[in-house]
Amino acid sequence: TLETLDKTINTPLRTFDDCIRWAREQFEEYYIYKTKSLLHNFPVDYVDQHGTPFWSGSKRPPTPIQYDVNNPLHLDFVVSGSFLKAYTSGIIESELKPSDYEKHIEYIKNYSSQLTFPEYVPKKVKITTDESVTKEEAPEYTDEDEIKSKNILQRLPSPCHAKSFKMRPLQFEKDNDDNFHIDFIHACANLRASAYGIRTVTRLDSKLIAGKIVPAIVTTTAAVVGFVNLELYKLVCGDKKLEDYRNTFLNLALPFIGQTEPIKPVLRKYANKSFTLWDRIDIKIGDITLKQLLEYFKKEHQIEVDMLAVGSALVYASWTAARSKDRLSKLLSQVVKDITRKPLPPGKYFMLEPTARDLEGKDIEDLPRICYWHS
Length: 375
What we know:
Helix content is about 40%, strand content about 15%. By secondary structure, the protein is an alpha+beta fold. The protein starts with a helix and ends with a strand.
């Protein structure tokens, strides 16, 4: 979101030609670059770790689509995208098709055919295909992300200096053929269908399908987002009591909307420390050995660690300690790299999943996750 805001406000589109280029960039991005990236990471003959072909069953390999100005579908995408972007950017005053629409089409056709874009450069992107991998292993917000976010925030103008910037929102209207809404959706959908070898549909079919989707989006989804934002406002305001917040249950088919006060998270204890499922243990003593980490927990937290894991990789288990003595003298960051056979997650820390006992031998239930800062 911040990157989009940075690009939109700090490098705004100023002319209709800018909008044509923008539309062509979207064509390259969605129908050439992303397709080639997917095929680079998963070639047509790719097989997974079980020896099963990746492109099998309902999965079809896509085909990159080279822009052809003489293909009506390609031109429709650029024409409708250019007009929509020009209107939202405040470059043109009406979102409807102009009286000299045919001249505009010819101009866009000629101008878009002259534009050139860099060739796709392959790069390896990690895409998880194993459905057994849990969401817990998804990349986390790193320190690098934090620095990047702060830099963008510093570049963004203050509200008083951004008054000259203007954008217009669009309200989707499928029944007005003089706007470009269905034109753009029809072109986008059919281009994607063509890339995957799926039968394309007529503009009327696109219009009917879009008409069925919109009511679902603007009802339950909009209601859920609204209730979530109401709770976010309370968090931003601060100084709120627990009873000021609400859990909301809704079923618009009945219709039924019910709200309840949230309950406090379960408070648990180990040694003389209290915690809930929202807490975590931060360790900021530099990169230490596995043995030093175990001793640190025993001294500082009065607990005996039974198991440590990074995602699904087991780093340490007390019942196999005799067979993994060589790990104890290694830096924990190196142990994690050896076990996972992958570089460390981006950033200065990684998360550890622990199980442990207190010094009296009693199991500690739901011990908080450990945030281990290695640098």
